[in-house]
Task: structure prediction
Amino acid sequence: MADDRKRLFQKELEVKFTKEHGDNKMEGGEITDKKVTYYRLGVDQNPRKVEMKKAGQEMAKARGLVGYNPMMHCGGIPLGQRAITPSFVSGTDIMVETDDLHYVNNAAMQQMWDDIRRTTIVGMDMAHETLEKRLGIEVTPETINHYLEVLNHALPGGAVVQEHMVETHPALVDDCYVKIFTGDDELADEIDSQFLIDINKQFPEDQAEALKAAIGKTTWQAAHIPTVVSRTTDGAQTSRWMAMQVGMSFIAAYNMCAGEAAVADLSYAAKHAGVISMGDMLPARRARGPNEPGGISFGHMADIIQTSRVDAEDPAHVALEVVGGGCMLYDQIWLGSYMSGGVGFTQYATAAYTNNILDDNLYYNVDYINDKYDGAANKGTDNKVKATMDVVKDIATESTIYGLENYEKYPTALEDHFGGSQRATMLSAAAGSATALATGNGNAGLSAWYLSMYLHKEAHGRLGFFGYDLQDQCGATNVFSFQSDEGLPVELRGPNYPNYAMNVGHQGGYTAIASAAHAGRGDAWAVNPLIKVCFADDLLPFDFTAPRKEFGRGAIREFEPAGERSLIIPAK
Amino acid sequence: MAYEAQYYPGATSVAENRRKHMSGDVEKLREVSDDDLTLVLGHRAPGSDYPSTHPPLAEMGEPECSIREMVEPTPGAKAGDRVRYVQFVDSMYNAPSTPYFRSYAAAINYRGVDPGTLSGRQVVEARERDMEEIAKFQLETEMTCPALASLRGATVHGHSLRLPEDGIMFDMLDRCRLENGVVIMHKDQVGRAIDKKVDFGKPMSEEEAAKRTTIYRVDNVAFRDDAEVIEWVHTVFEKRTAYGFKPE
Result:
């Protein structure tokens, strides 16, 4: 294929590396220059570092105890001896300081995770059957509407049934609510629109039909407990909190006697039957309950991100948004903090969703595939190429070499991804997602991921870090070993899969591969239609259709998070 | 017919250089004195004895063991030396070696070594005098260009950055400098100042670096042009995939 295409990252790198930001004196030069003058101006060349340095000094003065001081590094050598350059968030025109892509500095990132952790899906059908058969209570659309009104009072912490109860202040929990969804259009028509996630409105027609067929006449509650509660407790609290309020709301809405024996049946049916957590519980050695990020399978994560319903015709875009969301959650929050203790992993992750470098590689692959395999990277099911070893080898090799050559031709791209793990994620995510797009097969994509790692290592004589390399060099062996303890389709693997449990820089890419296979086919979901519909909800504070834009808004401090406590904190 | 080791496939100069590094058949380009080496490694004062972690093996009364009889201890192990490290960083811009090829060279050609490979750096741990032998070998031969490779026990950042205007690999701690046309180290590998400047000689010219490098680059020898190497990687990939294949 002719190599005369305009690289997506060129414009961003020209701004990033040849313009002055703050006091970095970067003006001039070409992004293809192999040599440059490093002014060694330290932290003072970067506005955010300057702000942080000043805050550290003020803090030390106020509390009489030293704190942040960038001159501590290596006994007084300032951080940022080379220019610390800001980054564009891929797919947007938002330029950010990279410090602001650390989740501690970014309210949108915190909200994305909050919105996932505080979500649970609870089936209504068994509770309704229990009400009707065990208690002889008639359930109608009207009673369901009434119940939902009660639950939207109770779920945030309003009291029902019991008197003289303490309650939560509604303004602190205004992000907490429940809606329902169903595959039954007739029932949906009867539900008050404020309570309904309307599949017909939220999804393209073909996706809506597929989702309704999968969900059938079942009915599900998409519940989100208060952000502040979730932050104070943990992911396992989500279903507990929901269960408590569900029980109370049924009793109140259907005028039941709280002491009668049949309520026990209802309680089980309403609270525990058909509960779907976003993440599975982790084993005791990792000490996490359900709804914590280590238990969220790649397929679930792919379904949580909603780009596929708003830009279905561009499956590569879908995969790239999933990369952003996946890298942030798995690398920055799960591996970067829960598993490792914090600080450092953010930069692995941001490489995948900044400066359009991965985007460029993947869209190159789309062109390559469409040229060679007759449009196989476009959305569709009858245009896919068969997932054979030859196809995996071809796409992964072309994709990887294209990406490697970009690092060789554009020294600023190499400088942007200055760690091998960043480069390896980029190249493999592009190869894997492209192969998944072309074949509609996530495992073929995963296979391409590993081949890309081998090619990268062989070309440059280096790859990522110690543990990173190990897992990628044995990874090909576990792609097609289909026993639950040995291997799974990529959709069902998750961050706790044995080889991935400490695999920084990978999990967002794996999620993208799972997503790409289905987005490429035009599927309405990757692994769970209920999760896909649950997050098709515009009322959530975080916009799951555009995670990268949201991270950018968080970085430039435009994002409004939920769960803030200023109402109960003395005003300064 | 005597077996002849085949170290690496490929028909390009990069493949040939890789074969040379792995076989240890590399050209010596410079001299580094023992004292200079000790200074830049920074583990002990030049001229001092090797600190030991145990008495010499000969004094320890080792138990009977057929393996111990078969395997001759390395000099460092025999003397009871501490385990120490040497760590190199190799630029992406045609540095002669790369982390994996430094590891292969150490593992194939030396005993008692523990090589570690990362994206920007490569560490070898071994008994101190054994480690020094490997470090000296690498520093004195074509495995190293003083401008495009350097000793860095700490802050390894720089291998993938553009080269500064004088062509020396970026080093945040400024351990290496170009002075009067030669590369000197005035700090040890972790960035502590040392008593004298250690001279590593002239940088390779761009042409020489391109000729001696073991990295494929599109502006020198492109990876896609070494078809045999790519085919070989594909073979490794296919075999590893098939090994784990379990269709039922």
Notes: The radius of gyration of chain B is 20 Å. Chain B has a mean pLDDT of 95.
